[in-house]
Structures are given as C-alpha cells and as structure tokens.
Write a structure and sequence with these properties.
Layout: E1 2-10, H1 16-25, E2 29-42, H2 48-51, E3 54-60, E4 63-69, E5 74-75, E6 78-87, H3 90-99, E7 103-117, E8 121-128, E9 132-138, H4 142-155, E10 159-161, H5 166-173
Antiparallel strand pairs: 1-6, 1-9, 1-10, 2-3, 2-7, 3-4, 4-6, 5-6, 7-8, 8-9
Length: about 170
C-alpha cells in the first residue's frame, strides 16, 4: 500500500477544540479516540536511519500489527510504501524479531482522535508523549491535503510543516 500523508506540528495547543469543531463544521465526522503504542526496531545488517526505513510493532487496544515502511519517495506530501500485517501475539512476534537480530529502539505512545472528511480524508489529531500535538492528514489526492491546510488557516490554527517522523523527533529528545 502507498501511504500519502502530511504532518503538521500544532503551535497553539489551546486551539485543538476549535480545530475539531471546525472540522465537524466542514462536514468531518469524529470516529473516535484511542491510544497507540509504537515500538520501533533497528535492522541487524543495515541502518534504517540511513535508508529511511522503519519497522514497528503497533498496539491499539488489543490489536497488534507489524508494519514495514520503505524509504520516502517524496516529502510533501510524504509518500512511501507501507506493508502491515495483523498478528495476535505481541510476545511471540517480538521474540521472533529479537531472534532474527532486530533490536528495539524505543516505544512511542500517542493519544489519537480520528476524523474522516469527505469520505476519504483521514485526519488524526495526535498528542504524542514528549513531543506535543500534531495533525496528520492522509488521502490519495494531494489537492485534498492542501484543502485541509486551508481549513486550518480558516480556523485560525497555527502550525508548521513537519518533515520528520515521530521516531526521528523522539530520538532527538533522548
């Protein structure tokens, strides 16, 4: 699957409820809130930082996924291949990775609120532990991402474009 998204760092956390109400005013539907724990791993034979790849185990409630992300093909929006498989046993999956020589890097927890706009624009408002608030927008059409940026401006929400992944940002803080 090809992932196409843009990530924006929110500069005024006090405007989050304003943003959420504005998304709904524009026809967005609130789909729910949940917490995510992402555990990232390094490869035993190549440097994912150099190759711009990622391997993670994601836990959402009791759902477990293993995801591989290829290097980015573009930055605005961020475009990369992403392969995800659902698994049912975190401990066994992690043991397999460790036995194969993968090493855990870190765990990142985010608290996410999800919206859908116009049927195909996914909007995630993330409160990432140690990093703050971000908005991620995922859709197939770049113009729809740009339209969402217009919504942010109309709502009076200040932001800055973030090119780095949550992992890259998190590792800068440790």
């Amino acid at each position: 699957m090809i992932e196409k998204e843009i990530k924006l760092k929110l500069l005024d956390e006090g405007k989050i409820s304003v943003l959420e109400k504005y998304i709904e005013k524009k026809g967005g539907i609130f789909l729910g809130k949940y917490s995510i724990v992402d555990e990232y791993f390094s490869h035993p034979c190549r440097d994912f930082k150099q190759t711009d790849e990622a391997l993670r185990i994601r836990i959402i409630n009791n759902n477990i996924e293993l995801t591989y992300k290829s290097s980015r093909a573009a930055n605005i929006p961020k475009i990369r291949e992403e392969f995800t498989v659902k698994v049912n046993n975190y401990e066994v999956l992690k043991t397999i990775l460790l036995k194969l020589g993968f090493k855990p890097i870190t765990k990142i927890t985010k608290h996410r609120r999800m919206f859908i706009l116009n049927g195909d624009v996914k909007i995630f408002i993330d409160n990432v532990d140690r990093l703050g608030y971000f908005v991620e927008v995922e859709t197939e059409l770049t113009e729809k991402i740009l339209n969402f940026i217009g919504i942010l401006k109309e709502a009076g929400v200040e932001w800055k474009l973030e090119h780095k992944t949550y992992l890259e940002l998190y590792l800068e803080t440790v």
